[in-house]
């Protein structure tokens, strides 16, 4: 237990807690990998105008459906637009959609779940609303909402956040129901803590593990769902590129021009992988029970 | 016993909602805890010890529990009638509690410092830095070595005994007047048990606390309590100063309990047991609840609820036949 008690040097060298967490994160291999992937993708998205001088919407009909070559590393699409450029520019929108949907549905779901678990009177009402939302397939719900809000990236974000919120709420509620009965919550109540404090300090932090993992999936689903919505004409409106709508536009040419779908698809996979690894790492390090030592 | 009454519980009844309506888990229980006194609450599982303790903190859920009668007077104010806000001030501030299992009383995602300062911040509005300093002093008080370093550790790094010390540090953080210890040593090793009891006793002296010690371990009670109340199936069966209870028990249940406790000086193969088991709280026993298991039960015991009778000053027992046999007017 008192492993290093005898080493006074450690006392001075002891880093502050915040840095310790950071150090542990950096030492966590899959977190580091995931974070690197996400940083590179984000940097590429931000620096798109520097990395390519072609306009992502510029059509060059002469060069339509060209396979990958030195001039067009990812080939060109049916309108002669450079797929590489479009994937780069699309990163910005897709990452933004994935991240906002994950954060919004995470925050909303956590709020609904925790409130339902802690205030038992509200629970039936909240959960029936969630059930009603869940009764529609997520994508159908998003289609309905997207259609009502009109095609724009922000309506995609809202629609998908609402569509994925019930699952998150359920997950958080399930964890919170277990946690609220544990002794440390009762101990907190005994020491005079009110409901809000108990939720904030005791229940929410202990729900974070499964929530983070779930959100890394939501991130990936959202990017893919944007593709589906684009395909149906209510996702990111063309000609602005997102990974989703590049894939869905490429679908018509899947056989003769595989590169249109392949590269944005790869980008989606890489982003999803990066986000999952990052979420895993975050969970490992933020949950002290998993004893990751830095 | 020891001066002014800090806590005065009168005729407390606590009921829970069950399949067949409301069932009493605690019935007409009365007791007092004086300043700096330690009252031991003894009884087997399901006898209503913990339920009693939780009512003192007003901690029963409104939907599943109710308290149809009784007064819990803490320094003259009835806890049962206090508004939530005042109750929250009392909890942790004036009345604190130590739970049985230190493995689950600490929040696994908060550091020791976070857990201890929580109470301080809630009740004394200390700044974070001052609260941290205070937390370190509290860890010193509960004799955790190298307190400064322990502050930033998470509960899983501590042993059971250490954790219980942290739990005690949290409980005494605001210098409570009354400490409720619900089986504080049950989950610990025997050697650690003794240390924790000693710590509790020292802290009681140091801080001038009253302690309500709940236990089914008679050894712990004999060691620590000034006065003892024995509960059986939700009712008080006997209450006495600790010596009198161990030397001159009156109620057959108390006698049975004492006989069932292992004793080192006697070489026995089997411990005596009390035949039968505690009645289901939902079943209605019209008379003495112990009568089905009792050797001395009379016909009247089974039909009429027995009254409390006095054996000697401060020594009461709910057993008219035994009191009569011992020569005390019931």
Task: Give your account of this protein's structure.
The complex is a heterodimer of chains A (294) and B (330). Chain A is mostly helical and 294 residues long. Chain A has one domain: MetI-like (MetI-like fold, Orthogonal Bundle). In chain A, 71% of the residues lie in helices and 0% in strands. Chain A has helices at 8-13, 17-27, 29-46, 48-51, 83-118, 123-135, 138-149, 153-179, 183-190, 195-231, 243-250, 258-286. Chain A starts with 7 loop residues before the first helix and ends in an 8-residue tail after the last helix. In chain A, 43% of the residues are buried. Chain B has an eight-stranded mixed beta sheet with strand order 6-7-8-3-9-10-12-11, with helices on both faces. In chain B, strands 2-1-4-5 form a four-stranded antiparallel beta sheet. Chain B has helices spanning 49-56, 84-90, 102-105, 112-124, 128-141, 147-150, 160-172, 190-207, 218-224, 242-247, 252-260, 299-303, 320-325; strands at 5-18, 21-34, 38-42, 65-74, 77-78, 95-98, 178-182, 210-215, 227-232, 235-241, 309-312, 315-317. The model of chain B has no long low-confidence stretch (mean pLDDT 86). The longest helix of chain B has 18 residues, at 190-207. Chain B is built from 13 helices and twelve strands. In chain B, α4 runs parallel beside α7 (160-172). With 330 residues, chain B is α/β, with parallel strands linked by helices. The A-B interface holds A 1-2, 5, 11, 17, 120, 182-184, 186-194, 197, 201-202, 205-206, 208, 286-289, 291 and B 57, 59, 63, 88-93, 96-97, 99, 101, 104-111, 114, 118-119, 122-123, 145-146, 149, 152, 154, 156-159, 162, 167, 170-171, 173.
Largest sheet geometry of chain B = 8 strands, mixed
Radius of gyration of CA atoms of chain B, rounded to a whole number: 21 Å
- How many helices of chain A? The count is 12
- List how many beta strands of chain A DSSP finds: 0
Q: What best-fitting shape of chain A do the alpha-carbon axes yield?
A: elongated
Strand content of chain A: under 5%
Judged by helices, strands and strand pairing, the structural class of chain A is: mainly alpha
Q: Report mean pLDDT of chain A, rounded to a whole number.
A: 82
Q: How big a fraction of the residues of chain B is strand?
A: 15-25%
Q: Percentage of helical residues of chain B?
A: 25-40%
Q: What is the molecular shape of chain B?
A: globular
CATH architecture of chain A: Orthogonal Bundle
Strand order of the largest sheet of chain B: 6-7-8-3-9-10-12-11
Uncertain stretches of 5 or more adjacent residues of chain A: 1-15
Cα-atom Rg of chain A, whole angstroms?
23 Å
């Amino acid at each position: 237990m008192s492993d290093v008690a005898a080493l006074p040097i450690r006392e001075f060298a002891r880093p502050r807690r915040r840095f310790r967490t950071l150090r542990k994160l950096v030492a966590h291999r899959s977190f580091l990998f995931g974070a690197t992937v996400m940083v590179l993708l984000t940097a590429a998205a931000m620096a798109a105008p520097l990395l390519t001088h072609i306009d992502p919407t510029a059509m060059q009909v002469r060069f339509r459906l060209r396979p990958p070559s030195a001039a067009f590393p990812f080939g060109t699409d049916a309108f002669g637009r450079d797929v590489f450029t479009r994937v780069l520019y699309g990163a910005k929108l897709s990452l933004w959609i994935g991240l906002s949907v994950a954060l919004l549905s995470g925050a909303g779901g956590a709020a609904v779940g925790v409130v339902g678990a802690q205030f038992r009177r509200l629970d039936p009402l909240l959960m029936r609303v969630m059930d009603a939302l869940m009764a529609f397939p997520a994508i159908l719900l998003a289609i309905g909402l997207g259609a009502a809000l009109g095609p724009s990236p922000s309506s995609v974000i809202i629609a998908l956040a609402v569509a994925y919120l019930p699952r998150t709420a359920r997950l958080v509620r399930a964890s919170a129901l277990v946690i609220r009965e544990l002794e440390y919550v009762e101990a907190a109540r005994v020491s005079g803590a009110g409901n809000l404090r108990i939720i904030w300090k005791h229940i929410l932090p202990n729900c974070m593990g499964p929530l983070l993992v779930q959100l890394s999936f939501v991130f990936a689903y959202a990017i893919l769902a944007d593709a589906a919505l684009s395909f149906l004409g209510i996702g990111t409106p063309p000609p602005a590129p997102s990974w989703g709508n590049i894939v869905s536009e490429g679908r018509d040419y899947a056989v003769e021009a595989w590169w249109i779908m392949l590269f944005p698809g790869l980008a989606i996979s890489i982003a999803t992988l990066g986000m999952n690894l990052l979420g895993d790492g975050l969970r490992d390090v933020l949950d002290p029970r998993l004893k990751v030592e830095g | 016993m020891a001066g002014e009454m800090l806590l005065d519980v009168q005729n407390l009844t606590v009921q829970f909602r069950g399949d067949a309506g409301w069932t009493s888990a605690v019935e007409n229980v009365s007791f007092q805890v004086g300043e700096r006194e330690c009252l031991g609450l003894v009884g087997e599982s399901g006898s209503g010890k913990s339920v009693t303790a939780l009512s003192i903190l007003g901690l029963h859920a409104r939907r599943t529990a109710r308290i149809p009668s009784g007064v819990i007077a803490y320094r003259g104010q009835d806890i049962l009638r206090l508004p939530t806000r005042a109750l929250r001030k009392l909890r942790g501030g004036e009345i604190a509690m130590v739970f049985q299992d230190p493995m689950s009383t600490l929040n696994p995602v908060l550091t020791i410092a976070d857990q201890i300062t929580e109470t301080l911040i809630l009740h004394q509005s200390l700044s974070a830095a001052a609260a941290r300093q205070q937390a370190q002093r509290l860890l010193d008080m509960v004799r955790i070595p190298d307190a400064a370093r322990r502050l930033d550790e998470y509960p899983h790094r501590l042993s059971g005994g250490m954790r219980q010390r942290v739990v005690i540090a949290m409980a005494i953080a605001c210098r409570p007047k009354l400490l409720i210890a619900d089986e504080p040593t049950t989950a610990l090793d025997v050697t650690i048990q003794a240390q924790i009891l000693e710590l509790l006793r020292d802290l009681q002296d140091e801080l001038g606390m009253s302690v309500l010690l709940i236990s089914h371990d008679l050894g712990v009670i004999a060691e620590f309590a000034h006065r003892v109340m024995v509960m059986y199936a939700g009712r008080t069966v006997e209450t006495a100063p600790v010596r009198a209870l161990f030397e001159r028990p009156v109620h057959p249940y108390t006698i049975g309990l004492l006989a069932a406790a292992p004793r080192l000086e006697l070489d026995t193969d089997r411990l005596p047991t009390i035949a039968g088991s505690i009645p289901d709280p939902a079943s209605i026993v019209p008379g003495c609840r112990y009568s089905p298991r009792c050797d001395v039960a009379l016909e009247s015991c089974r039909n009429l609820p027995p009254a409390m009778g006095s054996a000697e000053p401060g020594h009461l027992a709910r057993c008219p036949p035994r009191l009569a046999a011992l020569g005390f007017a019931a």
